[in-house]
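Incident log, structure service

09:12 report received: a user says their structure output differs between two submissions of the same chain.
09:20 pulled the input from the user's history:
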Amino acid sequence: MSENERSPMLGPAMSDLERTPRVLSIAGSDSGGGAGIQADLKAFASCGVHGMTAITAVTAQNTRAVTAVYPLPPEAIVEQVRAVAGDIGVDAVKIGMLGTAETIETVAGALDLVLGAPVVLDPVMISESGARLLDEDALETLRAKLLPKVTVVTPNIPEARILAGEDADPVTLAEAIRAANGAWDVESALGHLTAATREVLGDKEAHLRPGGLKAGERQFTVSGIFLITPDRQHNLLVAEHEVPPEQHRLCIPLDLGHPGWVVQHQRPLILANTDEAPDFRQILKTSRMGSALFGPMFWRGQLLGQLITAAQARNTYGPIDLDIFMGFAHVAAAVYMAHGGPEWLRTLVPTRSTFLD
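09:34 re-ran on a clean worker, output below:
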């Protein structure tokens, strides 16, 4: 059979697939068609990408309830991934329902078959009908084995709080936003948000874990915002907390260090352990920071600057923290514009002593 005579049942020819982004969904099957791989395949098709699946569990469900869940054996999950990765290829991965600790470990290992492909994790825990879809004893496995391997996590707020393993009180977030909206000046408004990131984010026991701190170190956090100056030549530090006073209005070249990387790539960045980042440069005049987050602030497609926070203990921050942090960055951009930020920024003239070249 020639390529032009291929049966529709055989799907597109490989030459077509090579030109079409290929996305693998590793998730459960929803007999009702409203979630799981069925929903993913519909979404993939609407975006013009070729969808593939590795089913982790078969569920019996409808619009009212999940009546049964049947996990697939680990070897079946791995073989599905191996089959498509070895022939069709995988450009990106989306992970959904996993269910058990055994399945999580299996999927984490299977990701080694698609190295280099960005991975999006939707940490499915509870169905819309209220059925539990992730075993309680699987949470730690999810945090330890899978989260370090994913690119983006897309939890809702309750899932984010659970995964972060902390009491990220939504009241704190709401209060920070209300305070920012009610502030009289730009920097005070932004300061409410940068202060809240220190309260809400991070593993509060990171400094107690092996390798968290070195001899003579203590856990502390800093936060602030680097705004791009009007001439777009420098990053200017504002709304900072726990930064040495002499670095108030610190001004650094736009391409310096990891803030420069964020400007160049216009993407968020997490340094879970700066010891593992050979190009890390300590910019603030504090002792070396061990873990850091950088969240770009966009307004109508333009990069305004970036929200930053850092802690001395290594592995204080993880992927979940970065996702929550980006929520803060989006709010910060809106607050900055609502308070006339660009006009205010033009009034700031950093002194020569605050420049770091």
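09:41 both user submissions now match this output. Likely a transient worker issue. Closing.
09:42 reviewer note: The chain has a mean pLDDT of 86. The domain at 3-154 is CATH 3.40.1190.20 (UDP-N-acetylmuramoyl-L-alanine:D-glutamate ligase).
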